């Protein structure tokens, strides 16, 4: 790996580069130009290794994995890349000499709008681990021009503003014009005899879109591996525009250009309209077809002309069902372009593809209307139709007369294409993302498939990159860990377990307390600067940060806070451990209840923070526009990690792991990876409450729960719910009617009221534990020590060994 010798060399290069890039004296640069200059300097350092890595994979003919994901929530890359190339200090000192502060430059980078939640952040952690472990693996996604949205809170309500994250350019990307491919949509496809007794496909009158890749380097930590995240952008070609111009008028040509660019314009176009759904399906196929075509082309040019050995060299992973069209796309290429018969094409496809499921929520299971699908992707539809026919034939042969069975596993049913069924059928491996989630997949969600192919199902518990979430986000804690157990954990996170020996070491615990204090102060300064609110760093920082969804139960959290508020008003001398409750997260623009929960939090926050009697006891804040950069400030400062989803609903969660790594205590249900966190640290070091997943399931199946009964018998619940709609929260009567209805008229689908008492107890328990501060710090240390298991390095090693069959590649 090329490096800057020292800060003098850094400065020399910086000055030269900035002269060329900006035609300015260093003194006159603006911060964004400083950021871009440093980014280009890092690109310079890694470029040789980037080329070498790709060459090495080809020369050694190693098997490579391609991870397809509709999102890669990368976060800023400047600091993480500086850390990876081990140049942060040199850069910091060099910039300082030139009159710049690296910490002031880092925020100049906009968070890339390439993802929004857990699935996207997981993909980013995986890319990070692949490079860190020298594994030959690359990402494939879309270069969205606009991210989800920028969230602002106006009058307590979420307002969505465009996230034009590319507005200043993106110095990490490299456009590869020569690697562009064409993706075909619409037209007509049909089968006809080929004259040799077989059928061949005719696909005509389609229109094609140019897919142009933009490559972003994924830099390995302290090694010389640089993998690639390939992001596809939809572009029109001049020839295509002329073709349209020749047929119609200028307006047609403008419309054509616009329609093409629309494909990669927005992350998650609104899908409540037919137009939105059409665009989303186009995006999925666009990413898949571009990605698969480029993999096949690379394979044939660089690895082997014999397509039959494709599976020996290529693994493709589909991150949830959004990229599931990889399966029919491979079939199309193998049959139509490579001339393989169906059976051979199918064998290679299933040898190559593996699928991870990330949700069991029925509404999140992707389905496409068949008429839309057929119109947009006629050739792909023919493949799926044939696949469905062959598959149902097998199922019916095995289960004569059992149409229910056929319905359960069909890809095409009820005029819809069922993407999860396609994904399962075309993959040699199907995994869930936490033990309990994988179990639910086998026992319930995908049970019918599990009984057909039990050997394909497995679990891979999620993990997070300890480099971003500990080394980068919390350098103070990282240094403390070094001073206790040495620094081998940085490359081998499982070594963090050696910290267990320090859980009873008073000196260590005092230092741990100091670190937490520093981090709480950093967050408090940010909050003071952004919100003009003073938060008490002696209070418990209790944090819930994640997407807003009814099943994640931010509502339970805020109802408890409201209850606490009323209790304190009634009894001002009540003995409580001071709390600061912090929330962050976005609600989907069209999700009424989630947006109303945000509003409720803001209304309660205003009421509590404005009440001087509560000063020093209770504070509630909603931090707007939660993203990776804000998360990096929040996790290190947390005392309590709120993981309170309805048991059985959260596939895994990964925020829970980031909190744990930073020494927060989990307050959670037995859901997702909380179960494994509990298993690691035991009852003494986390607080578990609420219904278990099997109890939730029993209520769903057999009934027996009435939220109205609770309303009648539990006076706290009655009082809280009444206040939601009687105007006492100062927003007029019926202000929160939608939430009230979800809890009562819709019988509290997510068991918020059912778990309410248990949650209040758990909160009390947290207070008691915090008062015994020594014990609290011990628990914090135990959590950090056991967090090594939740490093994505462990997860990726398991994928590499069990699913992809790839090995680390050492440079020679
Ligand atoms: O597996 C990663 C994450 O994916 C989700 O965010 C998702 O988009 N389905 C799940 O909700 C999380 O539980 C999970 O950790």
UniProtKB/TrEMBL annotation:
Keywords: Carbohydrate metabolism, Glycosyltransferase, Pyridoxal phosphate, Transferase. One of its GO terms (biological process) is glycogen catabolic process. The keyword Ribosomal protein does not apply. InterPro entries: Glycg_phsphrylas, Glyco_trans_35, Pyridoxal_P_attach_site. It is an enzyme of class 2 (transferase). GO terms for cellular component: cytoplasm. Its cofactor is pyridoxal 5'-phosphate. Its EC number is 2.4.1.1. GO terms for molecular function: glycogen phosphorylase activity; pyridoxal phosphate binding. The modification N6-(pyridoxal phosphate)lysine is found at residue 658. It catalyses: [(1->4)-alpha-D-glucosyl](n) + phosphate = [(1->4)-alpha-D-glucosyl](n-1) + alpha-D-glucose 1-phosphate. Phosphorylase is an important allosteric enzyme in carbohydrate metabolism. Enzymes from different sources differ in their regulatory mechanisms and in their natural substrates. However, all known phosphorylases share catalytic and structural properties. Belongs to the glycogen phosphorylase family. PANTHER family: GLYCOGEN PHOSPHORYLASE, GLYCOGEN PHOSPHORYLASE, LIVER FORM. This is Alpha-1,4 glucan phosphorylase. It comes from Megasphaera paucivorans.
């Amino acid at each position: 790996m090329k490096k800057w010798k020292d800060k003098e060399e850094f400065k020399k290069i910086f000055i030269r580069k900035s002269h060329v890039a900006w035609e300015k004296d260093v003194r006159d640069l603006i911060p964004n130009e400083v950021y871009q200059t440093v980014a280009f300097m890092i690109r310079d350092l890694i470029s040789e290794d980037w080329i070498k890595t790709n060459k090495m994979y080809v020369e050694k003919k190693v098997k490579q994995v391609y991870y397809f994901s509709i999102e890669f929530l990368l976060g800023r890359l400047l600091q993480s890349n500086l850390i990876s190339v081990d140049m942060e200090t040199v850069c910091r000192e060099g910039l300082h000499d030139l009159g710049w502060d690296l910490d002031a430059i880092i925020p100049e980078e906009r968070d890339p709008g390439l993802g929004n939640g857990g699935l996207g952040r997981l993909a980013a952690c995986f890319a990070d681990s692949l490079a860190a472990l020298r594994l030959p693996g690359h990402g494939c996604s879309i270069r969205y021009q606009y991210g989800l949205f920028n969230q602002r809170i106006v009058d307590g309500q979420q307002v969505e503003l465009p996230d034009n994250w590319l507005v200043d350019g993106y110095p990490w990307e490299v456009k590869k014009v020569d690697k562009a491919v064409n993706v075909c949509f619409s037209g007509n496809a049909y089968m006809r005899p080929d004259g040799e007794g077989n059928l061949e496909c005719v696909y005509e009158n389609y229109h094609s879109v140019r897919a142009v890749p933009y490559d972003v380097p994924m830099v390995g930590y302290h090694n010389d591996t640089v993998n690639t995240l390939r992001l596809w952008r939809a572009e029109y070609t001049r020839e295509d525009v002329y073709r349209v111009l020749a047929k119609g008028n200028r307006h047609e040509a403008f419309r054509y250009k616009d329609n093409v660019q629309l494909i990669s314009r927005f992350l998650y176009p609104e899908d409540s309209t037919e137009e939105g759904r059409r665009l989303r399906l186009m995006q999925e196929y666009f990413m898949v077809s571009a990605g698969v075509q480029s993999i096949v082309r690379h394979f044939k040019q660089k690895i082997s002309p014999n397509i039959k050995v494709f599976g020996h060299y290529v693994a493709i992973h589909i991150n949830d069902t959004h990229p599931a069209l990889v399966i029919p796309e491979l079939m199309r290429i193998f049959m139509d372009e490579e001339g393989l018969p169906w059976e051979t094409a199918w064998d290679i496809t299933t040898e190559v593809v593996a699928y991870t499921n990330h949700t069991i929520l029925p509404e999140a299971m992707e389905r496409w209307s068949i008429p839309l699908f057929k119109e947009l992707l006629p050739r792909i539809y023919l493949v799926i139709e044939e696949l469905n026919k062959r598959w149902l034939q097998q199922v019916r042969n095995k289960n004569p007369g059992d149409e229910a069975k056929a319905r359960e596993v069909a890809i095409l049913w009820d005029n819809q294409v069922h993407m999860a069924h396609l994904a399962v059928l075309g993959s040699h491996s199907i995994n869930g993302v936490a033990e309990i989630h994988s179990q639910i997949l086998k026992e319930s969600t995908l049970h019918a498939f599990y009984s057909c192919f039990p050997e394909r199902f497995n679990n891979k518990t999620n993990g997070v990159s300890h480099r971003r979430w500990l080394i980068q986000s919390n350098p103070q804690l990282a240094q403390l860990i070094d001073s206790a157990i040495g620094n081998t954990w940085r490359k081998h996170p499982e070594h963090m377990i050696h910290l267990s020996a320090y859980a009873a070491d008073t000196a260590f615990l005092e230092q741990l307390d100091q670190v937490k204090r520093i981090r709480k102060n950093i967050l408090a300064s940010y909050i003071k600067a952004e919100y003009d609110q003073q938060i008490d760093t002696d209070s418990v920082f209790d944090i819930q940060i994640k997407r807003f969804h009814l099943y994640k139960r931010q509502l339970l959290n805020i109802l408890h806070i409201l209850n606490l508020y009323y209790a304190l008003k009634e009894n001002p001398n009540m003995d409580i451990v001071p709390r600061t409750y912090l929330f962050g997260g976005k609600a989907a623009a069209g999700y009424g209840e989630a947006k109303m929960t945000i509003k409720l939090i803001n209304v309660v926050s205003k009421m509590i923070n404005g009440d001087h009697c509560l000063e020093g006891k209770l504070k509630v804040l909603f931090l707007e526009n939660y993203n990776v950069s804000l998360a990096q400030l929040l996790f290190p400062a947390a005392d309590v990690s709120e993981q309170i989803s309805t048991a059985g609903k959260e596939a895994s969660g990964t925020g829970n792991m980031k909190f744990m790594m930073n020494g927060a205590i989990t307050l959670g249900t037995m859901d997702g990876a909380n179960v494994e966190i509990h298993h690691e640290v035991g009852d003494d070091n986390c607080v578990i409450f609420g219904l278990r997943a099997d109890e939730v399931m029993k209520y769903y199946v057999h009934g027996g729960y009435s939220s109205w009964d609770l309303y009648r018998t539990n006076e706290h619940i009655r009082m809280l719910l009444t206040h939601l709609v009687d105007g006492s929260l100062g927003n007029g009567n019926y202000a929160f009617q939608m939430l009230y209805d979800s809890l009562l008229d819709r019988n509290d689908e997510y068991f918020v009221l059912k778990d309410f008492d248990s949650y209040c107890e758990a909160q009390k328990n947290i207070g008691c534990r915090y008062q015994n501060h020594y014990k609290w710090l011990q628990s914090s240390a135990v959590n950090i020590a056991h967090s090594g298991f939740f490093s994505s390095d462990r997860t990726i090693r398991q994928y590499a060994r069990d699913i992809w069959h790839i090995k680390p590649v050492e440079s020679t």
